[in-house]
Amino acid sequence: MTLAEWCVFGALLLYLSTIASIKWIRFRRFDNSRPRDPAFYEDALAQRALGAHQNGIETFPFFAFAVLLAEFRDSPQRLIDELAALFLIVRIAYVLTYLGNRPTLRSILWSIGLAINLGIFFMPMLKRFLPV
């Protein structure tokens, strides 16, 4: 497996661990028979963890598709790997800023992540201009 493919797996684990961690921390208050109970998410930190988790679900498909598209279209693998690793680092920072209640920085990181994703996605179209 390539580094980029491991980063796809890492992005999956990131959005799962974001919500799992808050459920684990507050496990005595979490009722698994009612996993979407709004009362569990009344706390500000739990709300932010849920928001980060949902955003991870929203961004994951595009990232996974962009990586696979770039790889299947024979784009430079080293560049795909570097951008995928950078995307994962930005996403980790995004989750931390979401949990830490830093909305402006969070929005900046989200935009950077989107730009990286677009770069991976359009890499096959631009590969003749990229270094091998």
TrEMBL record:
Top-level taxon in the UniProt lineage: Bacteria
Keyword Transcription: no
Chief site of localization: membrane
TM annotation in the entry: 6-25, 83-101, 107-126
Pfam families documented for this protein: MAPEG (PF01124)
SUPFAM superfamilies: MAPEG domain-like
Cellular component, GO annotation: membrane
InterPro entries to which the protein is assigned, alphabetical: MAPEG-like_dom_sf (IPR023352), Membr-assoc_MAPEG (IPR001129)
Signal peptide location: none
UniProt subcellular location: Membrane
Keywords: Membrane, Transmembrane, Transmembrane helix
Full protein name: Putative MAPEG superfamily protein
Species name: Bradyrhizobium stylosanthis
